[in-house]
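Q: Predict the bound structure with threonylcarbamoyladenylate.
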Amino acid sequence: MPKVLRINQTLVLPGSRKSVLVAARLIRRGGLVAFPTETVYGLGAAATDRSAVKKIFKAKGRPADNPLIVHVAGLDQVKESAASLPPGALHLMKRFWPGPLSLVLPRSDKIPPEVSAGLPTVAVRMPAHPVALSLIRAAGVPIAAPSANRSGRPSPTSLRHVLEDLAGKIDAVIDGGPCQVGLESTVLDLSGSHPLILRPGAITREQLEAVLGVPVAVAQGCKDGTPPSPGMKYRHYAPRAPLLLVAGARPRRRALLAALARHYRKKGLKVGLLRAPTEPEGLRRAAKRLYQVLRGFDAQGVDLILAEGVSARGLGAALMNRLRRAAARTIKV
Ligand code: TXA
Ligand code: MG
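A: Predicted complex:
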């Protein structure tokens, strides 16, 4: 029998077929398993098991009014999770699944209200990572999974990040290497009269509009006090040091960033600097590395993070959204 690696009772499994079977058994028995997806690591439990789902909230320290995404491996499981498919849903699934797009649909009775924090809807997504897909298939149930971080911490994009936050609080984690996208999925609400992006991600508004053939709006926070998505009211992705975001046209924001860095370093502060990519291909790399860099700053014990904004087009919209939400303050120049 090969030696089994456990860290504080949490089973650490390599990304193999055998691991997937072990993890699927844990899920079927009501356990919690963290697993890799192409976006970030998820913390999974059987979506149909009320008490297992409650354990997710406890392990993460997540407020009970923030709903979870249900992960599926096929259309059969979409039909199990959703009461109906609004217009456009199937087209989007065909075009973007498996991939970083979550669709908010009317919730079926098979999914307990705890998954959706009591909402009549459910967010559903088919992840593109082979380990995630085979885990869901082997478990034989849709898997409810938020990002596998302690609530309020940057999302985990590697095994190490998951263990930092959740070792000892979950049954197992499967190693799938670093996540390729690095930012959480686009959340698109199809349950209302118009499609609405609740959270920007790697599937862009432009891509969604091209498939749906109608304009797609982006939710703008909570003007009347009720956020369109419960997740929007929480300050997320927060590193320990305060993050100051400098937005605006490139030459001006660069100049201010450099001046601020000099100023605070002269005062004796340890400053972490997060520069925007200069070429378009760099955007993908910046998204992939964002949470790793933020966690790295925490580990180095920086006093202040200075981050340069990017233009909010395409993937830039998702990156800017995460930076804004991590920021203690944003300066526009
Ligand atoms: O890429 C991802 O989406 C990752 C991986 C693991 O799949 N998951 C993830 O889950 O980021 P989480 O729980 O960290 O974020 C889910 C977001 C939250 O902002 C939540 O409020 C929103 O989706 N959400 C989930 N269900 C919803 C619903 N029924 N209506 C509105 N918003 C919903
Ligand atoms: Mg999260």
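A: The longest strand covers residues 101-106.
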